């Protein structure tokens, strides 16, 4: 549908102007009239499409078969009502595998410890003691008392030195163990921290896999996200991705409530029915909330800056000839769209109101997807200084009117406000009661005599 801008005036020319006949034989096409006050309304026309308040296509969360359908095509359902149930042994197996993997991911304690064993000198000490005892026994056999005393004293001294050396060796071993423990503590603390982080990450990953698998199993019962009308999708009837715990990690919690995105199997697959096989992502049912209808209009770039939130509009539908619906602007988009003719338009959202036929009877409620024409009221002036649109001559960026002063044509640059298709609002350059050329203005020249 092409984009057309229509400027409408609320007052007819007969009310605004007292038109005269031809001014002379030489100017048969020139007519003049008076400037007066009248309401002027500017309207922008744009093609539009009827939309619903919300629509969601619910898809199968896993490969399986349709076990049960709780609704029929066209049923009105409430939020949370079960719509369909999918039987999926694959999803159940994935949940089982994920739970088993979660159990094996429990973190184990890790406390590194290194120490030197203490030196056991007991056997050596006993042998030394035997030797000292034998030496003492032999020393006592010496008859010279002085020599005997000297030998025994030397033996006692040697034995005392041996005991001191044994104690020193034990002390050295203890100190060495302490040094080794201190060094290893600094080296292994980073390793212990890394091991703990890896174990915690493994546990979190396993928990996420369980959560994703459980969400998929829970969503095998597809429920209405909001109240609306049911429409069945079409299942592709085969295929499916591989299972396993790894595939679960890429799934987001939410299961089968996937976004409403067209799929390859949505138009040429098997009808949705009990027992039909489905693949993950196959559309099962669409819920459409028709409690409030909207309009998506494409407004040309030359007009969109005139449109404001809350602006009123009249709507006509191809499907309901002779009926007019009310509407109001609720939002104006900022993302441009290229039209089929090469121009640029912007989306404007409206809330659709009730409709009536020309005889005053109530019009039927439209359905989403129907095409429409929207006429948006962008500017209104209830008591404007008004001139017919035919009196305005464009000269570059200026708007010019030929006023008649003392019987002579005078060029006036005017500033326009609201612009209807028949009359326009003049903000400056003219006054109520002045006479202007309303027909044939293109042929008038400065200083030309006119009655």
UniProtKB/TrEMBL annotation:
One of its GO terms (molecular function) is efflux transmembrane transporter activity. Residues 247-276 have a biased composition (Low complexity). It holds the Pfam family YknX_C. Residues 89-103 have a biased composition (Polar residues). GO terms for cellular component: efflux pump complex. Residues 386-448 form the YknX-like C-terminal permuted SH3-like domain. InterPro entries: YknX-like_C. PROSITE patterns: PROKAR_LIPOPROTEIN (PS51257). Residues 88-112, 244-276 are annotated as: Disordered. PANTHER family: MULTIDRUG RESISTANCE PROTEIN MDTA. This is HlyD family efflux transporter periplasmic adaptor subunit. It comes from Nonomuraea zeae.
